[in-house]
């Protein structure tokens, strides 16, 4: 089996050094620390070796094509390929320099943009299947950093080619030489222009890979690592508020490491490391335990599994991944599930990111099989099984099938939900009851039946909603009961039974329940998540199972009457992040942008 290979450019200090250290801790393979200065690079490797890490060093000057070619030849001969490429090398310029912008523009654009481009063009042929490419951008690498609307239009052209982007970057250099760059609508600083160019390059590169005839499923993303305290930040034009102190290099490496280690489903994105956290939100990539705990144990478990399989192939463990779906309800309702919408996108994302069995389930067998056929046309191979989450016999049949054929489950995504159309004129008690029966009780029954099949380190994802937050409960008394940290499953069920009784008697609004049954169902599902996690934590034989709820965002689906602002792929991003397991979250309420919200907070989160 080929040894995996990770390459980091400009890594003898700062963020690059911290990224190499993080890869040595969490990436099972050879990690190459490269730098232009051989002496400083060797010193960095020696320092890491004194800590117990074993990176490899190779001299690489990204502004010298001969140097890049030599590195390519070395990798091709000794490693045969690359799995992770992190383009971190870059320079800034002193703001108080007495020189004009001419020299900075020439040097900075040549290094940060064209140097990175040369590295990519030379090393991309060596990228293996499922490789991750991370381009280190900046907070200034956003399109909004360009003042001119016309220039913004050119940079954001969905059909922009590398040749056209190169011409734009050369135009900037020419305009700075003529001291006309500001008058012509460019940003003031060459560093900013170089990072905007790098972010735009990321999008183009991803499109090229997506169009490959033999799709290698390569991901290219750019990332703002945060305002990090390094030598470079003394030279970069970034303003911070008084309450923002620079990040450490370790903190700055977390978002790049998150992208480099894979399992996120992101392609062609610009990812920002959020430093200021409001309303107790926490950016996932800044969680200290993401890479240092779960990823290490996960990779070790995979290695042990491989060793076991080599000894006895008949004992090979098959991953069974379930996305539940509810499909047949009255015509005036909207449905989301695995045969379409977010559920379909989640299945597609799982097929892309995991080499294992993925089960797409649906109540309607015809629609479910049509969805599977469509995915097979795209080159994916999900399995189908009929499942009606409102029918206990159907759930039992599915459980028996999985138990007999797979032996267990590693990922369970509860995606089923029904709701009123967004333009509904009046509510119906009959439909309200069906919503509770499906969204809450149906998901509960699936969990109670399938949980005994969950394997160690399993991930359970309950797809909630932006309105599934406790702050949407009008009554403070009812809210306090939902927010009781010791709430049991029996007590939660009793709360929902009380809600249904009040609903039937048409006194639910009077007694402080929310008037919308969909909102109550999602609040209950979010509360159920916390209860379920506590139950797993208290098991005598702790299996390290994670249960989290997630708001996928306002997505353009049938359920939203196609008024949503996100694509189904964007809506699948947060559920996929949780399902793929590269995190340490347990019992959390996760937002569409991968932030963690305090579910008990009295402040209502912004919906969109």
How would you summarize what this structure contains?
By secondary structure, the chain is an alpha/beta fold. It is 43% helix and 15% strand.
Task: Please tell me about this protein's structure.
- The chain contains 17 helices and 18 strands.
- It has 608 residues and is of the alpha/beta class.
- It folds into two domains: 273 residues, NAD(P)-binding Rossmann-like Domain (Rossmann fold), CATH 3.40.50.720; 279 residues, Rossmann fold, CATH 3.40.50.
- A hairpin with a 4-residue loop joins strand 17 and strand 18.
- Helix 4 packs parallel to helix 7.
- About 13% of the residues have low confidence.
- GO terms for molecular function: carbonyl reductase (NADPH) activity.
- Belongs to the short-chain dehydrogenases/reductases (SDR) family.
- Keywords: NADP, Oxidoreductase.
> What's the number of domains?
2
Structural class: alpha/beta
β-sheet strand percentage: 5-15%
CATH topology call of the largest domain:
Rossmann fold
Q: State mean pLDDT (0 to 100 scale).
A: 81
GO molecular function, one term: carbonyl reductase (NADPH) activity
Family: Belongs to the short-chain dehydrogenases/reductases (SDR) family.
Keywords: NADP, Oxidoreductase
InterPro entries: NAD(P)-bd_dom_sf (IPR036291), Sc_DH/Rdtase_CS (IPR020904), SDR_fam (IPR002347)
């Amino acid at each position: 089996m080929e040894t995996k290979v990770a390459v980091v450019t400009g890594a003898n200090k700062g963020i690059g050094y911290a990224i190499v250290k993080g890869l040595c801790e969490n990436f099972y393979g050879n990690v190459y620390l490269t730098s232009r200065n051989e002496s400083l690079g060797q010193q960095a490797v020696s320092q890491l070796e004194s800590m117990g890490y074993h990176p490899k060093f190779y001299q690489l000057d990204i502004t010298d094509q001969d140097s890049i070619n030599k590195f390519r030849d070395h990798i091709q001969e000794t490693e045969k390929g690359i799995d992770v490429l992190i383009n971190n090398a870059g320079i800034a310029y002193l703001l108080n320099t007495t020189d004009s912008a001419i020299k900075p523009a020439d040097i900075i654009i040549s290094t940060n943009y064209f140097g990175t481009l040369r590295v990519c063009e030379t090393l991309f042929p060596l990228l293996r299947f499922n490789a991750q490419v991370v381009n280190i951008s900046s907070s200034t690498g956003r399109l909004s950093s360009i003042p001119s609307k016309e220039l913004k239009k050119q940079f954001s052209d969905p059909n922009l080619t590398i040749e056209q982007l190169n011409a734009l970057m050369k135009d900037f250099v020419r305009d700075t030489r003529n001291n006309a760059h500001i008058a012509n609508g460019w940003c003031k600083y060459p560093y900013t222009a170089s990072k905007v160019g790098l972010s735009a390059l990321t999008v183009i590169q991803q499109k090229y890979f997506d169009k490959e005839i033999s799709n290698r499923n390569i991901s290219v993303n750019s990332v703002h690592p945060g305002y990090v305290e390094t030598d470079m930040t003394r030279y970069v034009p970034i303003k911070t508020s008084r309450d923002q102190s620079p990040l450490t290099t370790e903190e700055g490496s977390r978002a790049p490491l998150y992208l480099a280690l894979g399992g996120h489903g992101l392609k062609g994105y610009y990812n920002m490391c959020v430093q200021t956290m409001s309303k107790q939100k926490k950016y996932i990539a800044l969680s200290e335990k993401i890479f240092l705990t779960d990823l290490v144990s996960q990779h070790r478990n995979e290695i042990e599994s491989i060793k076991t399989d080599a000894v006895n192939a008949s004992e090979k463990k098959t991953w069974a991944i379930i996305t539940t779906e509810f499909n047949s309800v009255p015509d005036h309702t909207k449905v989301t599930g695995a045969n379409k919408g977010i559920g379909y996108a989640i299945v597609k994302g799982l097929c892309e990111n995991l080499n294992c069995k993925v089960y797409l389930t649906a109540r309607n067998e015809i629609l479910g099989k049509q969805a599977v056929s469509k995915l097979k046309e795209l080159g994916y191979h999900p399995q189908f099984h009929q499942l009606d989450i409102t029918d206990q016999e159907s759930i039992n049949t599915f459980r028996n099938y999985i138990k007999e054929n797979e032996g267990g489950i590693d990922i369970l995504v509860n995606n089923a939900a029904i709701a009123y159309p967004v333009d509904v004129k009046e509510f119906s008690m009959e439909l309200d009851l069906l919503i509770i029966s499906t969204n809450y009780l149906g998901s509960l029954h699936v969990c109670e039946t399938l949980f005994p099949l969950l394997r160690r380190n399993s991930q359970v994802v309950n797809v909630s909603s932006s309105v599934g937050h406790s702050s949407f409960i009008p009554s403070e008394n009812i809210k306090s009961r939902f927010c009781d940290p010791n709430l049991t499953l029996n007590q939660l069920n009793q709360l929902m039974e009380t809600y249904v009784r009040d609903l039937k008697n048409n006194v639910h609004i009077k007694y402080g329940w929310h008037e919308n049954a969909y909102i109550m169902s999602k609040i209950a599902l979010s509360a159920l998540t916390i209860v379920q996690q506590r139950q797993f934590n208290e098991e005598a034989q702790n299996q390290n199972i994670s249960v989290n709820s997630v708001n996928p965002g306002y997505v353009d689906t049938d359920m939203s009457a196609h008024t949503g602002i996100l694509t189904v792929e964007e809506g699948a991003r947060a559920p996929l992040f949780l399902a793929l397991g590269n995190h340490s979250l347990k019992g959390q309420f996760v937002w569409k942008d991968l932030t963690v919200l305090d579910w008990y907070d009295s402040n209502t989160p912004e919906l969109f």
